[in-house]
Amino acid sequence: MHGNIAKLAFHGVRGSIPTLDRGMWRYGGNTPCVELTAPDGTHIILDCGTGLRMLGNQWTRNDGDSSIKAHVFVTHYHWDHIQGIPFFRPFYLPQNEFHFYSFPSKYLGRDSLRHVLEAQLARPYFPVDLTLMHSAREFAEITGGDQFEIHGTKVTARWLNHPQGCLGYRIETSAGTIVYATDNEPGVPELDENLRQLADGADVFINDAQCSPEQLASTRKGWGHSSWLEGVKLARECRVKNLVLFHHDPDSTDRVVDGYLHAARQEFPNTWGATDGMGLQLRDGVAEFKLREGRLGQRRAVRFSATVSGQARDGARFEEFATVKELNLRGGYLWLSHCPQLQSQMNIRVDCGTPEKPNTIMLRASVVHCDPGAEKERSGVGVIFIDDSELSLPLD
Ligand SMILES: [Zn+2]
Ligand SMILES: [Zn+2]
Which stretch of DSSP H or E encloses residue 385? Predict the structure, then answer.
């Protein structure tokens, strides 16, 4: 038995449009999709952005032919919250069953989400049509103020301030309360009050943090988004335990989001920056956060001594001597007398020991840059290291 635990997994955290920029690698580029597993095993999906594809791949890989039943909550119909639907493999498998919840949009009329789904698979937008989507699907229309239970988990929906409308959700499980409030701009008193009611005493409060406070007050006013500072104010006022900054701007690099997170933590230490692959376990209202280890990939065993300084969980600074046992290397720059072909692969043996104690790291790399004669007739060669797990894959 694992006890009474709710699990949350972030599969997409980027707002507006997916990003693939290298400078956004750590937080990730998939648009919103959050998976909640209630303590009784009930599956809840929050939004169907491109992160939904990752969840679908995970479920079909892990569970094979077993059937999946899930409750899917869509906050609103902007592209970034629905775009993953056609790419979610479990929707196509007959043994699966999905219950969708969203609001009737005045632009789409009754059965809004059903229309969205059908339109996404209509010709000529997608190569296969709805007849191949074999899962059972049921659509429920909800609105702000609705409250209902799914196998003992209580869900409350409230309107947020966003162009063409958006619902925020408060989900109360027996292990703790999670609030999902993305795509919201503060400033409309009754909608601000909605958000306060949703957030009240939440264990995990996921809030829109797309803009900087300066942008929110100027160039981004009226765009329907919020900032880390608004999140911090609410987190304090509503006595939430953990604040998660979510819906990162597609133009915010990792450094920019790092800056928001750092600023927020000065004011509210229990703040987290949502990343693709981040997860948490919630037990008795206490959340334990975890970042996806796979993200660290490309690790190589080494043995270096190092002096490490940093910040402990209680906020105190520390410095200590340590042994580095693994390194995560993404790439490098070398001078070679040859000029290797772009996108060809090289083996690199790095000597990192001492004459008394020789040591090496073996790396496989793909050439991404070659500058002939960069240094004393040698070429400057840029490489990206290839993960061990990729080496087992065929190249074609
Ligand atoms: Zn959005
Ligand atoms: Zn939106």
Answer: strand 378-385
Report the relative pairing of strands 5-12 and 279-283 from DSSP bridges.
Answer: antiparallel
Task: Compute the distance from residue 119 Cα to the ligand 2 centre, in Å.
Answer: 18
Q: What is the DSSP letter of 6?
A: E
**pLDDT tens for each residue of 326-383:** 877 778 889 998 889 898 989 988 887 778 888 888 888 899 998 888 777 888 999 8
Ligand nearest to the CA of 77: 2
By the 8 A CB rule, do 159 and 172 touch? no
State the pairing for strand pair 279-283/360-375: unpaired
User: If you measure from the C-alpha of residue 80 to the centroid of ligand 2, how many angstroms do you get, rounded to a whole number?
Assistant: 7
Q: Which residue has the tokens 């998660």?
A: 244
CB atoms within 10 A of CB 157: 23
98: CB partners within 8 A, 6+ apart: 69, 70, 71, 72, 90, 91, 135, 136, 137, 138
pTM: 0.89
Return the residue matching tokens 């949703």. Answer: 198
* Ligand 2 mean position, distance from CA 78 (Å): 5
Q: What's the CA-to-centroid distance between 169 and ligand 2, angstroms?
A: 15
